[in-house]
Fold this sequence. Notes:
Two copies of one chain form a homodimer. The longest helix of chain A has 19 residues, at 414-432. The first copy, chain A, has helices at residues 2-12, 21-25, 50-63, 117-126, 143-148, 240-253, 293-307, 331-335, 343-348, 369-385, 414-432, 446-451, 455-471, and strands at residues 17-18, 43-45, 67-70, 89-92, 99-103, 108-111, 131-132, 164-170, 176-178, 212-219, 221-222, 226-234, 261-264, 283-291, 314-321, 356-361, 364-366, 392-396, 400-410. In chain A, the strands form four sheets. In chain A, strands 12, 13, 14, 15, 16, 17, 18 and 19 form an eight-stranded antiparallel sheet that branches. A five-stranded antiparallel sheet of chain A has the order 5-6-10-8-9. In chain A, α6 (240-253) packs antiparallel against α7 and α6 (240-253) packs across α10 (369-385). Chain A is α+β, with helices and mostly antiparallel strands and 493 residues long.
Amino acid sequence: MTRALEAFARALGAGAVLTSEQDLREFRDPYAYVGWDEFTAGAVVMPSSVEDVRAVVRVANEHRVPLWTFGQGRNYTYGGPAPRVRGSVLVNLRRMDRVLEVNEELAYAVVEPGVRFFDLHDRLRAGGHRLWPSVPDIGWGSVVGNALEHGRGYTPYGDHASSVCGMEVVLPGGDVLRTGMGAMAGSTSWQVHQRGFGPSPDGLFMQSNFGIVTRMGVWLMPQPETYLSCFARVPGDAALGALVDALRGLLLEGVIRNHPLLGQGVGIGDPEGAAAVGQATDWALRFALYGRRAVVDAQYAAVEAAFAGVPGLELTQRAYAGDDLSGVTNHDDRVQCGIPGMELMERFQAPYGEATGHLDLSPVSPATGSEVVAMVERLRALYGRHGIPYIAGLIFSPRSVLHITTSFFDTRDEEQTRRVYDAYGHLVTALRSEGYGLYRTNLMYMDLVADQFDFNDHAQRRFNETIKDALDPNGILSPGKQGIWPKHLRTGR
Amino acid sequence: MTRALEAFARALGAGAVLTSEQDLREFRDPYAYVGWDEFTAGAVVMPSSVEDVRAVVRVANEHRVPLWTFGQGRNYTYGGPAPRVRGSVLVNLRRMDRVLEVNEELAYAVVEPGVRFFDLHDRLRAGGHRLWPSVPDIGWGSVVGNALEHGRGYTPYGDHASSVCGMEVVLPGGDVLRTGMGAMAGSTSWQVHQRGFGPSPDGLFMQSNFGIVTRMGVWLMPQPETYLSCFARVPGDAALGALVDALRGLLLEGVIRNHPLLGQGVGIGDPEGAAAVGQATDWALRFALYGRRAVVDAQYAAVEAAFAGVPGLELTQRAYAGDDLSGVTNHDDRVQCGIPGMELMERFQAPYGEATGHLDLSPVSPATGSEVVAMVERLRALYGRHGIPYIAGLIFSPRSVLHITTSFFDTRDEEQTRRVYDAYGHLVTALRSEGYGLYRTNLMYMDLVADQFDFNDHAQRRFNETIKDALDPNGILSPGKQGIWPKHLRTGR
């Protein structure tokens, strides 16, 4: 390791390698109990270019040092920047922070992995571009990192992995690959066409340890004439199924094109109400319409008609001109038009201040009323068994729902933290027994969650291991990520 | 080979193995000169189940016999069912023709690879489902095969590869993989959520020789209240750029959600005009709007407003009730609401009757007016240099265009056929020199087209070969497909 660190410093410069305990403290798992040290890094390297990343990979192969990459490392509930394997060298990509291109006519940008949602938003504003990014609830994350981890935003481009067009990837062996049309040097169409000639490997580099993405095309939303931020509210669970069925119809029909959020007691449409987390019984739905005023009006009338059949539903909306977002001040309205913020971070710290941790557990279900009602009841009962309140934000696509549930705890209290983590493991297997899997998970549960994907005696794991061995024979890149281990660490099964 | 054929017959039954010259004639490259025999099969096997497919793969590995798979083998311009390597055993999947599920609430179907667009359409109609499939111009192809080859249709679900949700794949080694949420046995969400936990391999099984897809989820379009089939026409090239820019705006805005087709002299909106192929100077655009009447009306007004700035443009439309398609009789209107047909096949045989062949060359460009005009002029000049008329249908997505161009010839005339094939090779390299690649190609040009994807000294090829060697060490599956060769056939480079 000492020789590896010397080699990293020779390759990147001494200022690009961090090793002191104090420097490393910033990169621990932020929502683990403060005394746990399973996921602590051995060092941090900070490449500034693709060539630097190649050098890092070369050194890691020579010295057989495990790496762990991140763009910003801000996905705190999943472990933040912390590595799965203790002592790994973190590849901190924050210095690769350039927005390489913005194309207004074709509505895309090309970004490096250190570009934050804030940076992309600011660049679009500064350039006077009539383009909106899609942003998640908290704006300090990496645009690339979020998309690679299947993260979500709330505009029509909110399924971020689907809005990726063209990647540059440093493979574990050091080779540089460009995907899609970018596989042709000097391609005119890298960021406009999602597939190239032959197989498309892009999906392989998401939620994986098969390569380091150093550049990515991301599709943007053209600024609409009108933006309507809409809210529906129903009292209690009685009308929940009807609400979901009406919503699915509107999504499948293309009347609603963004990714609606449905929650109970999480302050949707009413930030004041967030204080009473887990107390409220109303369900609140947030969604948006975008386009020419006449089209939006006709779509809103269709929404009214569809929701008229939902008992007790109240519908409200706030209209904005697409070219003047100065009046968009609250979180709900901002996040649906691509304005990044930090409000939710502050709200999430309400329980225990800066020591507050939270652990998200997010199963996927079909988007029918009966499925959603059953999942809500199931999760409420499961959490209830552990004495944890059920707190959920359901993110909708036309056919599926991410049930984002979260548990808060005080990271200074080991017993309380342990209780939440233990409950998580129980919920994973309980959900699996009824055919539901998670879309993403924390470092601690990557193996357990991967283990639930068991079709044909874990064919997916065998397949992933075959690819892993072919691309990364020394097993240097992010061992254990999403439960994928290199050969020399595949013990105990 | 003889022993392999005996083993296939033992595994599948003698009736599932074809070897006679007469039986094999049906499976030649239908649009090659009748005397060429480079792409002729050695035998045909016809599995009826996943277990049969696994048996075929096992026998092929034992006897080192090259396989070549197809669902229906109807993509005639690309080689139909014919194999890249002479003497390959065709894996004809037509017997796997079950529609395994139709889900009306969640708007999807699950199909086997032998299911034709006709079959899926008929099944939806027979079941009274208010769901429309997306179909390409000719309805006898395989739903699975078309999606895997990046094929297109003309509804909002017309980018077929994007509408795939969940695959079952027999790997070259015989293992069976289910992708996405289907990697969990008994998953509730296989066909509703496109990604699972960890990397997504689905793109790897498209335009590739990495696996045999035996089952696939496909998203369907809910029947809209109103369907408006629309046509715009401009005289000559003068307004072409303005038309494309206006169209791109409408697509990016989400006013037009289907995949418009723009052509010159190919009979769009005027089947009578198709006789004068290559003669007409008008450009005709076909597109559609779908939804509630009031929404569609507002969208049509937006289309009128956007096209008002295009000099000389004439706009027309035909409205249909979504629940009564009985009056939809012409090809243009049928193909935009998912009714499969064979009219275009007949139209394409006009030049030389049943002996007519045609070779499609389809570069991808960005969807801007200046790019499209430049590509039209470039292709017209390139074809002109070979004395071939420029005949094009441009399929639009919001950011990219497939410039489908085609050349007709008499497959009984070797010199004429050769001339068209030779011109094709010249065009591929000429287009590449300006940064344009093809989205798909004929057997004869798979190597040449793959060769144009040359970034970083052909990093894409090295990557594909690494995956190929890992998944198919004996190189039995579709050697040479899309220019990907197994190790023992990688000679001459």
